[in-house]
């Protein structure tokens, strides 16, 4: 998602402070400065796995600095802001936007076992949505099945987001939604009244001849 297509009032901040609250607060101040005093209607907080233990303090610091109407985010395997990407070590990124014409509805969703399989709860009405954002704990939420069902029933909905991978192990993820820190399920927002153009930020294309994988160890083929 390219923030400039949402609004001209967008701020982003990045910090590599070893303390979660300090890092989040510093990144939030950078984002706030870029907004030029405009109110924050929607903010995102992304923390590296090193800050998992301080997730609650980090979220509180962002809310204190920005007073956002809504805030989402997660502990991620990699943190990106401006022209930097960090996959190792402590890092915090904050993205903030002033969207005065937007109607924003945040939500929390969890997966429940049923006699017929798995059901997800908490997904709001997506009619006329200009954008849906979704951040998922892959260990407790059936992201693949949910997206397949969504494509069948709501294939017109522009959805962006990703997996909250944390350190890549169970119980190392945290999700943020309007002042709450959650440790399972998914969080997201439905935006209406905002012109949005979605793009793929990264991708791979096949090159060379096809090969057969004969052995793999962890992530090495």
Percent of residues in helices: 10-25%
Q: How do the helices and strands follow one another from N- to C-terminus?
A: EHEHEEEEEEEHEEEE
How much is the average pLDDT? 85
Radius of gyration: 18 Å
Biggest sheet descriptor: 6 strands, mixed
Strand order of the largest sheet: 1-6-2-3-11-12
Structural class: alpha+beta
- Quaternary status of these chains? single chain
Report the end-to-end length measured between terminal Cα atoms: 31 Å
In terms of per-residue confidence, which ranges show pLDDT below 50 for 5 or more consecutive residues?
1-8
Shape: globular
**Portion in strands:** 25-35%
Please count the beta strands (DSSP E, at least 2 residues each).
13
Q: Output the number of helix runs.
A: 3
Topology:
Layout: E1 10-15, H1 20-35, E2 42-48, H2 55-66, E3 71-76, E4 79-81, E5 84-86, E6 92-97, E7 103-114, E8 117-121, E9 131-136, H3 143-153, E10 159-163, E11 175-177, E12 180-182, E13 186-192
Parallel strand pairs: 2-3, 9-10
Antiparallel strand pairs: 1-6, 2-6, 3-11, 4-5, 7-8, 7-13, 9-13, 11-12
Helix pairs in contact: 1-2
Structure explained in plain terms:
The chain has 221 residues and is α+β, with helices and mostly antiparallel strands. It is built from 3 helices and 13 strands; from the N terminus they run βαβαβββββββαββββ. It has helices at 20-35, 55-66, 143-153; strands spanning 10-15, 42-48, 71-76, 79-81, 84-86, 92-97, 103-114, 117-121, 131-136, 159-163, 175-177, 180-182, 186-192. Strands 1-6-2-3-11-12 form a 6-stranded mixed sheet. Strands 8-7-13-9-10 form a 5-stranded mixed sheet, with no helix packed on it. A two-stranded antiparallel sheet has the order 4-5. The protein is globular and about 55 Å long.
């Amino acid at each position: 998602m390219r923030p400039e297509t949402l609004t001209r009032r967008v701020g982003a901040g990045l910090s590599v402070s070893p303390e979660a609250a300090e890092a989040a607060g510093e990144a939030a101040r950078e984002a706030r400065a870029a907004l030029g005093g405009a109110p924050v209607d929607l903010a995102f907080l992304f923390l590296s796995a090193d800050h998992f233990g301080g997730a609650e303090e980090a979220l509180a610091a962002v809310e204190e600095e920005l007073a956002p109407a809504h805030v989402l985010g997660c502990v991620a395997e990699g943190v990106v802001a401006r022209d930097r990407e960090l996959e190792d070590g402590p890092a915090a990124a904050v993205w903030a936007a002033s969207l005065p014409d937007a109607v924003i509805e945040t939500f929390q969703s969890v997966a429940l076992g049923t006699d017929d399989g798995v059901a997800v709860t908490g997904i709001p009405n997506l009619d006329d949505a200009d954008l849906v954002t979704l951040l998922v704990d892959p260990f407790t939420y059936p992201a693949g099945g949910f997206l397949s069902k969504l494509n069948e029933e709501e294939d017109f909905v522009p959805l962006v987001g990703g997996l909250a991978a944390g350190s890549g192990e169970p119980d190392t993820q945290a999700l943020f939604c309007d002042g709450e820190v959650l440790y399972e399920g998914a969080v997201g927002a439905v935006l209406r009244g905002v012109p949005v153009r979605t793009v793929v930020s990264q991708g791979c294309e096949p090159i060379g001849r096809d090969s057969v994988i004969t052995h793999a160890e962890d992530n090495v083929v």
